[in-house]
Structures are given as structure tokens and as C-alpha cells.
Specification:
The complex is a heterodimer of chains A (88) and B (413). Chain A is of the alpha+beta class and 88 residues long. Chain A has helices spanning 34-42, 81-87; strands at residues 3-6, 10-13, 17-22, 50-57, 62-69, 75-79. In chain A, β5 and β6 form a beta hairpin. In chain B, a hairpin with a 2-residue loop joins β10 and β11 (223-232). The chains are: A alpha+beta (88), B alpha/beta (413). Chains A and B meet through β3 and α1 of A and α11 of B.
């Protein structure tokens, strides 16, 4: 069984988590074109390398981010979304 | 008799010529280059050569023929979809399977034994009514049946009466069936090769040269070739392959796992699937019970198998047929599925004038092998998208004209 380390709850069994797909930058709804909205909705990072993606720890309903290699399935790190805002 | 056998063994008639010729040297130019030697690519080559007189065709396959998702799917053939565009397309797919052994002069072992999808809740039953009415309207063989009929169709089922997963009805799709996946691919390959199509195994496409919105040359590990028209049909590699031509497909890749048990005497006479248990079963002609389910729950490019998924599938299978608990697993495997946001494929034109897409086949590609091949060939021959394929354009993701088959695909096979 694969273990995922939740930034809030510590190492937990992966079937306690739900994947929400790669992190995307939200376009500004006032200025973005229809085409860019469509792109935002339907395109996602599908690289074979490292992806940053949303996860939820289901029992605690806590959302966080993980850096994971999409080929080897190695989880590089998991972190709270507030860290993302700090780095940006 | 032994003497005759010995004579035959030493004569020049033996060994018999194989169906697929050895890989020739690459020519410098082809009218059509098909990237991907799976069922879809080979079917397209067959239709191009037989019905459109186009035989200067190269099929390029990185590995061996039909070794990707053609070999990894669970060979369900059905047309019980939910959108009218989807049903019309898959319905013709089923019809082409009915005629396939004759068309290819190759026994594809098509067994039209019907597919039974089980409802354990009223909500599921309501969605079945919708699918049945859509199907009947389009002329497919489909109906909602009650629990008693389910029992008659599949007498070994655990009906779980009074339990949490009581079977309260089903969706009976008499057109559903299964076929031998290798035979389908080999039948198309043999027919195409007989008409002069070149099949290049161990030939990997490394890139495309693009000039004025056209692919001018295809670069491979065995040399560069120029191409009139190019089609991409490489299953789980479609996203990467299209990216080499600068086309970003709305695709995310997930593994799809399946497994088979040891062979048993024939007892499971229909395809059985359960929406709530995310499990489906079919008995192969070898007697093995093929067990499949939904894709893995997160994006990944690895064909490893997981204990979680094995446990999940075994749990579903033994719930439906409790006597399977003592049966051993024989093999397990996974394929990479190229999932689209609406669970429908992407077929037709691309932003490049001579690049044609046969992509986004996710977990539902095998059943469409003949019909996708037929209409992709027509599209390439006329350089105009066949009308039946128009709803499946990649452009639908820009115009929000989605074809939502989510409820009729994936785990609810």
C-alpha cells in the first residue's frame, strides 16, 4: 500500500486521499478570452516528469499540494497551499 | 503418416509464410504515414488499401504489432452509450465486428453473447432507462430488465437480496460481445500487407518537420521519410506524439489495470458489469475470467500493477460470484489510457493541414477499432472529415460542445 504524507495528518494510507489533478493558474474571469477559459478547463499538465497537483485528505477534508514524478510515482514533497502563495 | 509429416517438414512449403511480412527498408516517401501499429492504425491501413486504392502507406510501430493497448484492453464490444453521436458511431462499430471475420478472411472469434450491466440502486436504474431509450431510438438492441430476468441471464450471480448491494435490475445489451484482440489486429495487418501496405515494426517516430502548417517529413530511428498525410493512433502515447508535432491534446494519462483467473469450464455466458462495484467480468474463449474495472485514481505513466486495485477487483468479482473466492489469478497487467475530459475520443482534423488524429481512446478504444479505421481512412483519402466523425473534433473543447459519455464508460463498462 502506498503511503502519502499529508502536511497536516502525517503519513497516511493513499486510499484516504483523493487526487484533484495538476495545479493550474486561474485566468482572470474579467479579462480572459473564451479560448483561454476552454484551455484552462480542459488542458492539464500531462508531462512524464514532475507535476504539482492538488490532493485532499478525505476524512479531514484538507486540501494540499504534492510534487510527484508522473513516471516513477515518487512523491517528492507535499505542502500546504499557503507555501505556494509565499513562493509566488 | 509419420513419413508424410517428415516429408512436409523438410519440403519448401514449410515453414508456411507468415501473415505479416518482415519489416522492409524505409522508402523515402509515402502517401500516408500511420504512426502506431495497433488495431486502429492497422484497420485504417486496411480500409485505405481496400476501399480507397491507397497502398503507398507505411505503418510505423515503435515495438511489435498490437503490443500496446490493443493487447491490454479487456475486449468489450458494445454500443450502449448515452449521446446520439456516440451511439451512432459505436453501433456501426458493433456491426463491423459482426462482419469482420468475413471481411478479413481471418477468424476474429467474435462472440456476440450480450452484456449485462447491473443496477444496485434506483438512481442507477434511472440512468439505465435513459441509456436504453437513447439506444432504442438509435436502433440498437438494448433494454432495462428486472431482477428476475437478470437471474435468468446469469444464474450464478449473487443477487444479495435484502443486502446493501441487492441487484434490483439491469441493462441488457444483446448486441454486446467480445472478440480476440490479436486476431483483429493481425487480420487487418495481413489484409493491408497483402495489398502493399508496409508495416514497419521497431520503428520509432522521433519527431516531425513542419513547413507552412504541414508535416513535411517524419523523423524515425531508422531514417527520415516524407509523408503526404499523417495519422497519429498511438494509444497511451498520443499526448507525447501530438506534442512532437506541436499539438497539445486535452488528454491526461491514467493506468488501467486488469487481470485474469486460471481457466475454468464455460459458465459465464454474458459479459457482466456492476456500476457500483466498479468491476466487470467476461469469460475468455480459453476459459479464463477476465476482470477489469475503472482507471487508477490519479495520473501516472507506469504500467505497474497495484495490490490495491487487485484487491478491489477481487472483492467486486467475489461479491458478484462468491464461488470465485478459491480461484487463482493467473496474470495481471496495466495499460496507459489517454483520457479526454468528456470520455469521448478525439478524431479528425488537427491544427496541421495533413495531420489527422485518432486519439483520446482512453478505456474505450478496442470496440471502435473497425469503425475508427473505416472513417479515418475515408477522412484521409478525401482530406475531409467524414460526417460521422465531425462531433468528435478536437475543436469541441474550444466551443464547449462536449460529448459526455462519462456515465456510459470507464468503470461502468
Amino acid at each position: 500500500m502506498k503511503i502519502l504524507t499529508c502536511p497536516m495528518n502525517g503519513p497516511r494510507n493513499i486510499n484516504e486521499f483523493q487526487s484533484f489533478g495538476p495545479l493550474k493558474e486561474s485566468p482572470d474571469p474579467d479579462t480572459t478570452s473564451g479560448q483561454d477559459w476552454a484551455r484552462h478547463l480542459f488542458r492539464a499538465n500531462n508531462t512524464r516528469g514532475v507535476i504539482v497537483e492538488w490532493w485532499r485528505h478525505v476524512p479531514s477534508n484538507y486540501f494540499f499540494l504534492a510534487e510527484r514524478n508522473a513516471t516513477t510515482n515518487e512523491v517528492i514533497r507535499t505542502f500546504d497551499p499557503s507555501e505556494l502563495e509565499v513562493t509566488q | 503418416m509419420p513419413l508424410r509429416l517428415l516429408k512436409y517438414g523438410l519440403s519448401k512449403d514449410y515453414p508456411v509464410t507468415g501473415d505479416i511480412p518482415a519489416t522492409p527498408d524505409l522508402k523515402s516517401s509515402y502517401d500516408v504515414v500511420i504512426v502506431g501499429g495497433g488495431g486502429h492504425g492497422l484497420a485504417c491501413a486496411h480500409y485505405l488499401s481496400k476501399y480507397h486504392g491507397i497502398t503507398n502507406v507505411a505503418v510505423l510501430e515503435k515495438g511489435y504489432l498490437a503490443g500496446g493497448n490493443t493487447a491490454r484492453n479487456t475486449t468489450t464490444i458494445r454500443s450502449n452509450y448515452i449521446t446520439k453521436e456516440g451511439i451512432a458511431f459505436y453501433k456501426e462499430g458493433v456491426q463491423l465486428f459482426e462482419e469482420m471475420s468475413g471481411e478479413l478472411d481471418f477468424n476474429v472469434m467474435f462472440s456476440q453473447r450480450g452484456q449485462l450491466t447491473l443496477a444496485h440502486t434506483e438512481a442507477t436504474l434511472r440512468s439505465f432507462h435513459l441509456r436504453a431509450e437513447m439506444g432504442k431510438h438509435a436502433g440498437t438492441n438494448i433494454e432495462v430488465v428486472d431482477a428476475q430476468t437478470v437471474k435468468e441471464l446469469s444464474p450464478h450471480l449473487n443477487m444479495d437480496e435484502g443486502g446493501p448491494l441487492e441487484i434490483i435490475g439491469g441493462l441488457w445489451h444483446a448486441d454486446g460481445g467480445t472478440a480476440r484482440h490479436d486476431a483483429v489486429a493481425w487480420g487487418y495487418a495481413a489484409q493491408a500487407a497483402r495489398r502493399g501496405v508496409e508495416i514497419h515494426q521497431r520503428t520509432e517516430v522521433e519527431g516531425f518537420d513542419i513547413e507552412a502548417g504541414n508535416i513535411s517529413r517524419v523523423r524515425t530511428n531508422r531514417g527520415t521519410i516524407s509523408a503526404g498525410q499523417v495519422m497519429i493512433a498511438v494509444g497511451g502515447m498520443n499526448y507525447d506524439m501530438a506534442l512532437k508535432a506541436g499539438v497539445e491534446l486535452p488528454i491526461r494519462c491514467f493506468p488501467l489495470q486488469a487481470m485474469v483467473t486460471q481457466p475454468l469450464k464455460p459458465w459465464l455466458h454474458t459479459l457482466v458489469s456492476s456500476v457500483s462495484l466498479h468491476t466487470y467480468l467476461v469469460q475468455s474463449s480459453r476459459g479464463e475470467i477476465v476482470i477489469g474495472g475503472g482507471s487508477d485514481p490519479y495520473q501516472l505513466y507506469s504500467t505497474r500493477s497495484t495490490l490495491d486495485m487487485k484487491e478491489h477487483l477481487a472483492e467486486g468479482a467475489t461479491h458478484l460470484f462468491p464461488f470465485l473466492h478459491g480461484v487463482r489469478l493467473l496474470r495481471q497487467w496495466a495499460g496507459i489510457t489517454d483520457m479526454t475530459p468528456d470520455y469521448s475520443p478525439i478524431m479528425g482534423a488537427s491544427p496541421l493541414k495533413n495531420l489527422w488524429l485518432d486519439c483520446g481512446w482512453g478505456t474505450w478504444g478496442f470496440k471502435a477499432t473497425p469503425v475508427a479505421g473505416k472513417y479515418m481512412a475515408q477522412t484521409i483519402a478525401n482530406q475531409k472529415v467524414a460526417p460521422i466523425l465531425e462531433p468528435f473534433t478536437m475543436e469541441r473543447f474550444a466551443s464547449f460542445d462536449l460529448l459526455n459519455e462519462m456515465g456510459a464508460t470507464a468503470a461502468s463498462h
